[in-house]
Design a protein that fits this description.
Two copies of one chain form a homodimer. With about 325 residues, chain A is an alpha/beta fold. Helices cover about 35% and strands about 15% of the residues of chain A. The longest helix of chain A is centred in the C-terminal third of the chain and has 15 residues. Chain A is globular. The two termini of chain A are about 30 Å apart.
Chain lengths: ~325, ~325
């Protein structure tokens, strides 16, 4: 699934900034692709981009209207539908990160067919993926893994990509979730793939490549998350990673969404991820720790990074505050 | 998904016995539910059941026509469709283990709607499952895990169920694959569930129960299978097993479908399964090894079982040849 650029970001009637989280990720990582934001009168989110009409967006070069927002009540209402159809009439493709599908809206589908517009529901894979074959591929792969969900795996992967590109290394960001897909312009939502094909889908996403090329694969979930470990291990096996970066956020009281589950310690967590990864790539090694220290004081953050470095013998950085240079230094 | 009993087993034009593997499993484990088999003239499979017409099947009490056969070329042809519609006219429900869906055949769907017949495509879950919550449930659960796919996990689970029922223990067989679903009359194909909901689906399949009741959960895949480990770990986490039985088949040259992958040793395999299971049930313990020794001489089989017992400190049995008494003896 390829999303045409540039983008106009539709924020709808987002009740708060959090509801526009996906659009915010796009604006943060790909500002050069975003011609502006389109907000309805009662929208409470703001990405700091120019407010642009559908018409002005087209004139500014936008080819895709991105629905990067959570909609109220899980329903795409009549007002939104009228706007989407007008966008199609003006020549836009539509790409949505909503649970509800654009392709379930008959009037929108009819308009898209009439204009040859693409409707991309990026949470819902449409391709049929193969069963993984486990055959070793050419090129190198780095995967971010985590102690928990939402600890910064996408952010870390993008920061690594930016640093490697700046150093002139060959690298591609491989997106496995909705926000990442908009940022990459392609990818697949691995958590929506049918269980038998998780690893196979990731093999397709990260194909043979040049010997000195790195695929930087966005991780998902955690081996220690009682809801999502199936996604995580399939992702590990399919990616055949040469390098792992362990992502964590100190200070969480429990695993996300699971009040009775504690977070794993970093050593156990890294060991299990390496164990799992060795099945399809016995040469895998850990290259660093990415720590989201937003909830810590500067002193506590320094202590936490130092403790992780001493425990694991790896560089530990907060990608947002420190950059990821020490991790990229260890790649080959 | 509940399948009404009794069954008439449709073998179609199965080219050989292997193509009728699903029907054979039903006939083997639930002969009392099978009023007979229905074969087309060029069918080369035979379950040893009486050959019965659709009409005679109904008179004998059949309520569901089971398509327990692989169809040639992956297409349900016109001849089959005519027969299926005639079955619906006679009052049958249809239940299919095919990849192709009955619900994709408009004429069959129309007939089913007209007669109020159920169409069950057991490979394709229709229910929406929740994300797993990881909350401990009442009752006890045993899960079969394996070194590889197709090493006898379903067979072992059914043998345990039979033995426990014979001893007057409270036990339910919980099916996670198509053949198991027909044998249980209910269940879900876990490998066809969307990745995010693997563990959640298994939580639904094995709900709260009496304190002295055992759910016997049919395992799938292997943590050491590069294609399917996502299914396996989600199943482990969702089942929250109190007891694991390790299933294996000595003598395999490589993992099923993966020529470059060796089988794990029994100790490593069991340790990893216990590690994974401890996440949602820290009290999990291994209770036995089920070994399919069909490819071994009696001496070699005895040696292999003895070696496994010495290595793991658990009873090792071939369920088909020895029964599973020594494993059930260890349950509580």
């Amino acid at each position: 699934m390829e999303i045409k650029r540039n983008y106009l970001l539709f924020l709808g009637d987002a009740p708060d900034q959090l509801a526009a989280k996906t659009a915010q990720g796009i604006a943060q990582w790909r500002p050069e692709w975003c011609v502006g934001q389109l907000r309805l009168p009662n929208c409470n989110a703001d990405l700091g981009l120019p407010d642009v009409t559908l018409e002005a967006g087209r004139e500014a070069g936008a080819k895709t209207l991105i629905l990067g927002v959570a909609n109220r009540g899980g329903v795409i209402n009549a007002e939104w539908q009228a706007l989407l159809i007008r966008a199609i009439d003006l020549g836009y493709d539509l790409a949505s990160g909503l649970h509800n599908k654009l392709t379930d809206l008959p009037d929108v589908v009819a308009a898209a067919e009439a204009h040859g517009a693409q409707l991309a529901d990026v949470r819902h894979p449409t391709e049929d993926y193969p069963v993984a074959n486990g055959v070793k591929r050419t090129g190198k792969r780095l995967l971010t893994v985590g102690t928990d969900c939402s600890v910064g795996k996408m952010y870390t992967t993008l920061a690594l990509h930016r640093e490697m590109v700046a150093r002139g290394m060959k690298a591609t960001f491989r997106a496995t979730g909705q926000t990442g897909i908009f940022i990459a312009g392609a990818g697949l939502s691995v958590d929506a793939v049918v269980a038998d094909f998780i690893a196979g889908a990731i093999e397709v996403l990260t194909p043979n490549n040049d010997a000195d090329h790195w695929d930087l694969v966005e991780g998902q979930g955690s081996l220690f998350h009682a809801s999502y470990a199936g996604v995580t291990i399939g992702l590990i096996h399919g990616a055949q990673p040469d390098a792992l970066v362990l992502c964590t956020e100190p200070g969480r009281a429990h695993m996300r969404g699971l009040p009775s589950y504690q977070l794993p310690d970093l050593k156990t967590c890294l060991d299990r991820n390496l164990e799992a990864a060795r099945l399809t790539n016995p040469a895998v090694r850990a290259v660093g720790v990415a720590m989201n220290t937003k909830s810590l004081s500067p002193e506590a953050a320094a202590d936490a990074k130092k403790a992780a470095e001493d425990l694991l013998g790896l560089p530990a950085v907060d990608p947002l505050k420190d950059g990821v240079g020490p991790i990229v230094d260890r790649l080959w």
